[in-house]
Amino acid sequence: MHINIMKKIGITGGVGCGKSTVLELIKENCNCHVVLADDVANMLKDPGQPLYDPIIKLLGDEILTAGYGSQIDRAKMAAAIFGPGKEENLKAVNQLIHPAVREYIEKDMARWEENKACDIYFLEAALLIEERYDEILDEIWYIYSSVPTRTKRLKEGRAYSDERIAGIMSKQMTETAFFAACQRVVDNDGSLDNTSRSVRETLAQVME
Fold it and tell me: Within 10 Å of residue 50's Cβ, how many Cβ atoms?
């Protein structure tokens, strides 16, 4: 089933909720285009892209893998913006990245809508709600997994410690806030079959 007007849907959720798993199931069940905000940000930091020079000017060329014209080293950049005393660097970098990513995504959405190339444009971003992407989206889906499930995944899949998990979760929106801000919920707290069923049911509601 195809729809006449491309829908724009955001995908969000806390760390370890399984957004990647849900997006793979979404791709299998509808004619869609999926964009990850993190991938856009990384692309825009490549040599010749809009964020490359401003970030180097801000943080210095010591964040490069070699000399000017080489890639920005993610680990070196992280060391320059995270940690005690580096809050201003992080704030300044975010003020560069977030508007550039938003501009790219808005233009990309317009291209896909004009070409009528898909039924649904999915945007995944951790800060989807905080960065007010609801202004350009038709609706936002919350990928729900309980804290114990998320904790188990992060320990087994990423070898995160309890302290690291607690630190990340403490900086993210609560379940209550996610439920309040999102229009639909995909249940990814159980088996893959259960998640697949939840994805199909949610897509069916959208495609009605």
Answer: 16
